[in-house]
Amino acid sequence: MARPKVKTYREQSFDQLKGLDGISAAQIAEHLGLYAGYVKQVNVLNEKLAEKLAAGKASGTDPEFAELTRHLGFEYNGMILHEYYFSNLRPRSEPAPPSSSGLGRALADTFGSVDAWKTDFQGMGGMRGIGWVILFQDPATDRLTNHWISLHQDGVPAGFKPLLVMDVWEHAFMRDYKASEKKQYIEAFFRNVDWSAVQRRLEEDAATRPAVAA
Ligand SMILES: [Fe+2]
Question: Could you tell me the distance, in angstroms and rounded to a whole number, from the CA of residue 167 to the centre of ligand 1?
C-alpha cells in the first residue's frame, strides 16, 4: 500500500516570554523543553502510523497500531495547547482585558462581568488534578465558555475556538512554586496574559496558532 505523505511539525520559538512576572526564565525553559518533546512525538507517531498503513498493518487488532493511535490525541494536543499557552503570555501586561474592548464586552455578555468570568476561570484552575483551563468561543453561537481539559485531550469541545489557554499541569509551575501553591501560579499567570492576543483570537474566524509543518 502507498505510504501517506506526512507533514513534519517544527518546534516554535516564543521569544516574547522573557521577563514574565512570577514565572521564571528557568521555569519557561524547562516548559519549552517539554513542549519540544510533544512536537517530536507527534512527528514520530505520524511516521510510525504511516509505516503501519504502508505495511498493511493499519488494523484495530494490531496492538501496536492501536496503541500508537490512542496516543495521537494526547501528543497532538500536548503540542497544540502549549503553542496557544505560550503565545498568550507576555511580560508587562494588564491584569484583565479593558471592559470596553471587544473581549471585555463578550465576557461581560456571557458572565455578567469580566471579574465574574475571571472568578470562574481561576476557580477551575484550582480543581484537583492535572490539565488545562481554556476559554473557548463556540463559532456557531459566539458564546464564550470556560472548560476544564484533563490531560491534554479529554474535554476539548470539537470545533470550538480557544481564546485563552492556561496550563495547570504541575510541570507548568513547580520550579517556581510548591504543589500546594498552584493558586499563586494562577495569579502570576494572570499578571502575564497578552490580552491583545486573546482579542485577536476572538476576532479571527478560525483558530490560529504559531505552527509550521512541511
Ligand atoms: Fe505544559
Answer: 6
